[in-house]
User: Fold these one by one.
Assistant:
Number 1:
Amino acid sequence: MPEHASEVTAAGIARLAGVGRAAVSNWRRRHDDFPKPVGGSDTSPTYELTAVERWLQQQGKLPSVPLRERLWQRADSHPDGVPAALRVAGSLLMLMQGDPAISVSYSAATDEEFAARLPAEMETALAARFGPEHPVRLPDSLDDAVPLLRTTAKFAEDTGPAQTYEFLFGRYLDANPRQFTLTPQGPAELMAALAGERPGRVLDPACGSGALLRASSATGSLHAQEIDPELAALTALRLAMATDPAVRVRVRSGDSLREDAYRELVVDTVLCHPPFNDRNWGHDELGYDPRWEYGFPARTESELAWLQHSLAHVRDGGTVVMLMPPAAASRRSGRRVRADLLRRGALRAVVALPAGAAPPHGLPLHLWVLRKPDPDGRPPGELLVFDAAGIPGHGAERAPWYAVSAAVLDVWAAFDRHGSVPDRPGVNRTLPVIELLDDDVDVTPARHLPPPAAEGGAAALESVRDRLAMTLRRTAETAPAPPAAGEPARWPTTTVGELARAGALLMRAGGGGTARADGSAAAHAVLTEHDVVVGGEPTGLLPPGRPDGGVEEPVLVEEGDVVVPVLGGGAVARVVDGASAGAALGRNVYLLRPDTTALDPWFLAGFLRGTANNRQASSFASTSTRLDVRRLQVPRLPLADQRRYGERFRTLAAFEETLRQATQLGDQLVQGLYDGLTDGTVRPG
């Protein structure tokens, strides 16, 4: 075996071939020419990747290895680990972004020339982009990384350097879900928009994967600090490729509270998603730190320490937007700091997001918008509180994210311009600061918002009752007929992976893509994992394309496609209807597009929903379940029989949708009556 050759585990071979691990074990036992292990352990051996690919192709089990899978396998099997692989691959991609012709100049070079010339060019480019103290450390030798770098360059020629790095970085984050706390794209874009358009200098002192700075429209410089050195390096490369070359990027590693890398830096905006509930933030060491201008935070108030750290770095009048846990708005240990923030006019708005908007998903996190007070100005006397959970959705469903974001931005823009906005019961209110300066200094939005009156009063509730009665009658009419008894089936079966290889269906993974420049609404809609689960229309939005990165084409769904979410462990498969056709496919959702001359979509979706089918195709971790769509089984039946089953599954889906509507209307009626009876708009009769 060549020195430093890439290695792959049995699980990796299974992913390459689209089979289960049991199939790989069978190949090892039945085929004498199957590649021998070259490393690992007795229980988890590893194999040379090139030899495995060659064997699979010779056996006809892998007609062609997708280039993106080959690239990820090379990164995943790098001898120094995936972060090291992404550092060298990202450095090459940054070179290619600056000089697209560089891949051509290296394509004719030998491996030895490639490894000898590249390090110096990489170091020069890194220092020019990040300054001399950048966190991207390269190995002394690139000999073992040449296959990875060549595959990276080949993939980037068609996909683009920035998109290639996003693919690799995204795969790395997905493979380590418990290691990182990520800020989702939607909240990140909302935070950047709340901070204002086109700030000059922006800082994120707890940058993580760089989502907040990537969403920012900074025109001068981006500054970031991350306590994890490996993540700091990878985030630096991500920001460099996602940002206009004219914007300076500076990323440092270290603990921002204990070892601030930007002590003298003053910026226009700070965006921050700090660590929550961290009792080891430096309380015992930083008691006399000058950053505590609004009061020394208690040991349990790490978020208020990060908040004051952020305020210390903005100019007078500069903006800070923080993602905060809801407890920070009401804990007694933080009331003195909150009181001083209010008295001096630093805290301008508290926005409660819907539960699930960002991790931890069970909590309705808050956004705090702050302005550093002008020492010569008069402090404002009002605070804006906004509860996004009060924005009406469809029936009992909560409002889609784009509606939440637009509502928050509209109200904030009016409040920021005029100092006050009309109150909306249950949604937003402008509060005099003096009303909040009591013993609790509680700024939780829901506690200061009167509940919305039952919309339309008793007449509207009567209308809901009539619609519910009609829906319940339709539910009874569409209820499935009594099932006919039968023996357990003994069909010959195939898998989704085998159907895809045979051309009977097209399988695509969602999650990529950027919006088109034409601003078309259809091009921006995303069918999210949540939409598939609840049977709703698309509610997501594609991120905007970067001026220097072009447009990454998303996977668009068509009527008759079958979409399957892969996380959560539920048996869900949905046939796309005309209302969702044309939307982009969201993250953690797979698209199956059957050839209707061989495979009925309703038949396919129905059998994919079987509980036993989902159980055997799922992998179970301590905190999550992931579905391997390729392993889902489908009976081999003639098309006429498929359509017979498909029609039955279609009527079940219609019955399920009617039940869902009845549930929503019932919830709406019950809650409306409770609200109406308690606020007096409905009488007990």
Number 2:
Amino acid sequence: MPPPDAAARAAAADPQEPGYAIAASASQIEAMPRTLKHDETFAVFDAHGDAVPGLASNHGLFHRDTRHLSQFFLTIDGVRPLLLGSTVRDDNATLSCDLTNPDLPARSDQSELAHDLIHLRRSRFLFRGACHECLSIRNFDGETRTFEIGLFFDADFVDLFEVRGSHRAKRGRIAAPVVGESHVGLSYRGLDARTRTTRLAFAPTPTSLKADRALYRLTLKPGEGFLIFVEIRCDGIEPGRDARQAFRLGLKDIRADMRARTARSAGVSSSNDHFNEGLRRAVSDLNVLITDLPEGPYPYAGVPWFSTVFGRDALITAFETLWVTPTLARGVLLHLAANQATTFDPEADAEPGKILHEVRFGEMAELGEVPFRRYYGSIDSTPLFVMLAGAYLERTGDIETLRQLWPSLDAALGWMREHGDRDGDGFIEYGRRRGDGLVNQGWKDSHDSIFHADGQLANGPIALVEVQGYAYAAWNAAAAIARALGDLAAAEAYAARARDLRTAFDAAFFDPALGTYVLALDGDKAPCRVRTSNAGHALFSGIAFPERAEAVAACLMDTSSFSGWGVRTLAAGEARFNPMSYHNGSVWPHDNAVVAMGLARYGFRAEAARIFEGLFRASVYFDLRRIPELFCGFARQRNRGPVGYPVACAPQAWAAAAPLALLQASLGLSFDVAERRAVFERPMLPEFLDTLTLTGLAVADGRIDVKVERVDATAALSVINRQGDVGIRVEA
């Protein structure tokens, strides 16, 4: 029999606001989730390929922030098959689950069926708002066998925030199911007056089809097989072909789609097979999270909780991948420009010129039950937007795109001057306008992530250390863009702002006794004197004076901060340190990539290589070699892997992109578009890589293939192929 639906979900974890806590009633690690995504649709299944809410609250098929299938459960003669194995293909196109029968009692017409005689293989993918499955069944017994295959299903149409643990006093109405000969229609009329539908179609026609199950009574001779096709379509028009045709045509299309996305990027291969496997998974994760929006490709943040547009996440992901695929940065910049705030809206924390934080399409967002329908409550997205635009221009020389973006960039700079700096002291501060918006609006947006040395939470408005660095880089980027556009006076004014901010920042944020930059200034300008990874972002942005870099690097790499797997968000020994927390002692791969890029910028390549090595060693322990959003900050021990975080998103865009950023940091890679050269400044490879090959690396309007070989503490480079008048330059 199918499992009972989950009736309650305990809100135990606290990744963000208490009101938006992601429930941890079951560990995703224990449940071995298998995730799929295509455009606006994603799915979370267990290793059997089942969606079982009673075992893990995040299971199901989701479309535009609504769960369209809450249960999908396979049985053979009324019991669950045994799991042989399951995996998601390296390109993330399909999920394959191999199952077999357990011991089954004798029927009146046949003897007992011993285990491992009936093989079942489930092959599944998502494409354009639908989930497609082919269930292959084969009899390996020496005699004819009769048995029943059951597919049980249900759709609760709950909002994603309900799945995360939010509770609603009222919900809409689920309509009576519509059962046809080979299809079932399920629908829900929400309080937002929208009807959401799920249509399940089966081929061939089931022996019995009801509102919650499809049953096939099969009789298979020795060696005989049987195929069942299922199409589960979310909010779509009725297809013009049956489930069998839809599967076969869709599979061809999704694989072609994944190949096209891979072709956008440079290729990377190495002498280390483990690294190659992990990198293939990382690139595939990025490709599956990228959604083609009208303005271009855009990386959705992560599955399951953040499969939507996030400003900060996409901007940092674009930084991490800029050297490999600059078209992604262009798509991010154009989409965020198209959705930039133009008016004041306290309900959305919006102010003119501010860059988007998050977009949601579910019922709760439409009704205003959560503030995230179109939400601008992040303090760093706006300076990061300008900062990325400057980096994109430096990488590509694409002045026409920057000319198109300039009105949005000018508005963003205006926001930084007028609204971001709340008290006129030159620093950018945040404080929510809406009572149930995010209390903390930097990347560490947990309610308890910004605090003083004694553990007391900081009161706003709060000026974060990393945000001042982003602002500094943004003013410098604006100067470079204005210069390229021919406005030399504006360029000098922006550069002067950057210089003034750098001086003020050093005086207010560097703490000699602490040995690093403070986390933040609170509303009274009192420093939050705690050691955090945020200080590493000051190296990434370049705001740190060179004479401060050595102390900051030493603090980041001290054993209290560096766990062996990576730099912790908060150093051990600080108040509120907890290696199992979301932001107060855990290890975030994207954070480590940013820190490593900052270390490399100031010449600390050996330290950056240690971070690279730690994250690589950690990655081999994760399921499918998939780097998660975060993991626990316990110290690395011999013969033990890292400790997972129970509700981490996987895949997560900025985590998947981290190895690419770490490679760039190791290689000291930048681009001189005017000279049509890829520049390698004091390149090196970590000890686990002897050779590395970059293929199809875009340089100006040409492409180049480069081989890198480790030589002691440095690297030797050679061009093995080129298209166009392009080359490399190696700087000692």
Number 3:
Amino acid sequence: MLINKVSDQIKKSKYISRDLSWLRFNYRVLDQARDTNKSIFDRLKFLAITSSNLDEFFMIRVGSLYNYIDYGKERTDYSGLRELPFRKKLLDYSHRFVNDQYLTYNNELKPLFDKSGFDVLMVGELTEIEQKKVDGYFKNTIFPLLTPMVFDNYHGFPLLMNQLLTFGVVTRTDDEQKAQDRLTFVQIPQNLARFYEINRKDKIIFVPIEEIIRWKIKKLFRNVDIVSVNLFRITRNGDFTLEESDDIEADFVQEIKSKLKTRKKGRVVRLEVERNPSAFMMKVLKDRWVIDNANVFTINSLIDLRALWQIINHRQFKDRCFKQPSSVMPRSLPSDGIDLFQYLKEHDVLLHHPYNSMEPVVQLLERAAEDPYVLGIKQTIYRLADQSRVTAALLKAAENGKHVSVLFEVKARFDEERNLKEGDRLEKAGCFVIYGISKYKTHTKMLMIIRKEGEKVTRYVHIGSGNYNEQTARLYSDVSLLTTDEIYAHDVSEFFNVITGHSRPNEYKSLMTSPKGLRNQLIELIRNEARNAKKGLKSGIVIKINSLEDKEVMDEFYKASKAGVPIKLIVRGICCLRPGREDLSENIFVKSIVGEYLEHSRIYYFHNSGDAKVYSGSADVMVRSFDRRIEALFLLLNEDLKREAISILHYNLLDNQNSYIMREDGTYVKKRPAAGEDVVDIHKIFYNRTIYENADIELV
């Protein structure tokens, strides 16, 4: 009865729950791991990604929910559910997902290991000679790093680290007059590889480190009876970047922050444990961390599937999983070996990564660092590659006496330490470095090179949707613009003055920016389409983004739909809007594309009575993008490049190999080619430059 009531309440809401929508997105990623047309290594890669995704989901989104539960604050989800009923719904759905994850691993993928040149084996499945090697590895490497931590009347409960595998060992000594169980924790060292690798003649054997420790666990408990050995892993609340929490009010942020100062580590929100754990241990852990069975996930296999990256990245298999970066050049950049400084003075260039290499951007920056006519470089940085060529170029520019201004966003989740380190290097080299803008996260991606050319100065601008990370540029779908157009140059120059100084420009000609104005400007563009539809004029909206969650914009989509505006949304991940609901969103179509590349580009198309306005940039349609981040969308002014962007949207809508159609109830169905319909796979077709030759594409 209660289940039906909750389901009815969810169905009545005109919005989809952000968190339930995200879990459905992770199912679409899991679907890639189930795809028998992909190689075993690709399938393992996607399974590992689902595990990483779920870890972040529990740390951030479930952690955010527990901020309300733990501090007795009210919260109503988009689904209409209050915090405790929503917790139950969310964790029930998470249990279902984890069950499907491991069915995929155990039943569909593991049986393929042996014939694929590798296997994951337990110690007991090794030969005698192999066991001797493992024994030597344990004695010489593992054993010295293990530290048993007992919890009893004389020893306090130890601080167990987030997302580390831990053994809970229940013991009993012989000399106790009254039998009493004790619990000791042994954390597996995080600086050792998850698998010990053994080369056999025909394959590579991966032995889980936890199974080696289990095999030799008695070495840590001499003259003591071991009652049970239980492997588990905890996930703690990691939602400390509270300014980014879309559903937390400002005064509550300050309250939580003051309380968090007294906590060494976040509260436990998930406990993964192997089958048949000790009842004694489970009672201790659940009481200690104030969790119940809903937070406990029993795993019937390898705990923490992120471990699969060691197999995927193994030198023997890596080439089978990762494509070489594309050397395809965009139509607007016809050949290698051209002088980019000279070329960009005459032409704008639209890059579509990874189908176009990021090399032109990196090479332009590297050349600027050495060019005697370059006076200065200004750049925003959100995420960087390991051993970044971008950082190296900026360091070289500073060494060569050029003015270098860099805004490093130190609140880039999980990259905070790296950005601080790289920023410090640049500061020491003489660069002007800013570490974020007060309470806002700088998410926009901009680069400006100032070059003296005769009697005048030319500003070379790069602006896009993706990070300055040459590694992820091979795997992420992004769009970016290279230009010297004075309209962009003026706006970007003004924008840098805003974020590095104290300036408030009246308006931009080519940019829409947040936190000031972006939401309202998008709403006005939507309203313009609605006005045209009411006048009987042709109208239409096509938008490709990562996430759609902002209520104010969604309400405008609903109004525009009622006015007769056809709206097509390509939303990779979270989508809180309900498409196709009678008398609400009948004219709204939503699809998600999940496949070989991470769809990261943002493109906004508005028909505008035939004079289309097309924007791209860093911003999604989210509360945080509008209110808590520094973002920018740029208007495509060049007609040829505008057509290229429209062509990208066109083929995204046509794709029938990586697409999932969203239904009114928030579920998704995989799109398949209809009888006689051509196969359209955008992750293959975009390598063909001729697609941009479509002159007049009708999107709506």
Number 4:
Amino acid sequence: MKTKNTYITILFFACTLLSACKEDFLDRKPDDQVDAEQVFTRYNKTNQLVTDLYDNAKGSNSPLVFFSHFSTAPVTDEAEGSTAEGSLTNKFNNGDWNASVMPAGSSRGQYWWSLYERIRKANVILEGVRKYKTPDNPLQAGDLNKRLGETYFLRAYFHYLAARMYGEVVYVNRTIGTTDPMDFRQESFHAIVAKINQDCDSAMALVPPSWGGADFGRVDQGACLGLKAVVAWMAATPMWNGGTFPNDTRSFAAEYAFNPARWNTAKAAAKAVIDFKVEGRQRYALYQGHDAADFRDDAGINNNNSKVPARLWDLYHNMEAFQNEAVFFVTRDKDNNWQGDIYPPSWGGSSRQMPVQEQVDEYEYIAPDGFGYPVYAARAKKDGYDDANPYESVKRDPRFYRDIVYHGSTFKGKVINTASGADKVGATNSTTTGYFLRKILRESWNRDKSFSISGPPVWRLPEFIYIYCEAVNETAGPNAEIYDLLNTVRKRAFMAPIPAEAKASKALMDEYIKRERRVELFYENNRIWTTRLYLEPSSPKETTKEQAWQGAGSTNDQRSQKAWPYPKSQRMINGMKPVEDPAGKIVVEGKKYKMQRYFIESRVFVTPRHYLFPIMQDELQRTPTLKQNPGW
């Protein structure tokens, strides 16, 4: 919490939210209740407060730019970040952050102090409306209640963001005055979830089932159900439900023993989203535009050598896809400058965020028997997979070709060459991993054309399908229902189904669910949280793989080529580079190549320290009743 001098009055926060506020209005005394009355006795000004609170929510959790100018992908085993912006993401990977200093320029309002400022703004709105009896919209009766409902949701949402990063946090449901004692106390994660649910229920009673037209994207009942499902799933995962948390000094550690009922709660909450109906019709459905033979981009041109189905392009740019699948999203997340940062240098880009081999390996191949298997499966080589020709020796999941630019791929009508020229591995502004990011891009648009995109939704329908399937698998074991449900998401992406034996194996079904989540939600601000929720960096399974990798050769490159799948420990990343070979199967610009794995870097991920973010030391000094997270 902030000190008393930052717990200023209703007036200040009201004014800072009002885009039309005049400077003299800001200069008035902070305890001038007349000013608060002027704000909250006018619907249009109160409406603007809520509108700006939405903008705060966008800044606190934008999938494409969670850290300033970077997504969360480069601080996970999804991607590597460049040295741009002071090498911001690399500082996280090097362990160059602590309870006193976060990487400079990384904050976009997602850290403790900003989240609680925004929670305060929500409380200011809720209390101001009650105290001053804010009138309804004279042009549209009922709007005030909707604004109140949205504010309840946003208060819950900011607390969810805080709990996601910090775990045991303080739930603040009132404004804090300048003379109030700074004796705030954290609560258990499960207590926080219960209060988030209460605020979501308050919101659901006031917001409409859905919005249409220009209001589409505002908080509706579906978003409230979505938030309840997400926190229920988090509460059921190993971090908060029976997992072995090393050196556990959390205040409420005793409450985190395994309780199977938590998975039942997650199952019911996710099913409520999947089954949600508006006026008798299913609210959410998987987007089905275009057929398997359509590979045209948004300009109507097949510039990708018939590798990327048009349907998969549409998921992030087509309004019908958003209307079908988006449970909650923020608008206009990035623009043409972001796209330029991602483009390969041969197209004037600077490859700021590059996929790594750990992510690439998660895209399955389609076997001769018609099912999908991981490329590291024991049967892969027999089925034709060749690690020297990993992209074309077998057909990979179509989402791979949509998400990743690789050596020999066709991008914007041109074959990419990472062996020489501007796109060569290690060249200036080029890839260090052998890959460029393709997901989210609009390939028909050049970086010199001004445009903006909404980016991926914060939550979309497949995420809730995965939560439901996982919860069923955990509570009752695999069955035909979840097998078919997972395959509907895969079929939408023109991907082969899961092998039938998964219906009889809980462990195998769990592997497919988690791999599906990782592939479908790649680069959507998901992996950074799931690897922590499942305590992967300290799990015996992953540490055993890490030890096997260490012993697989005398050099890191030898290990990279011999020992995989790679451990999900978040302590290293690998890449793939082209090597000229007369017997190579990949031909680019008249030369034959084979691909070769190589080690890129070690990373710092210390458990339990890096499972939760640190509360800043100055916050602890100002509020001595707060307790620091384990390991910091």
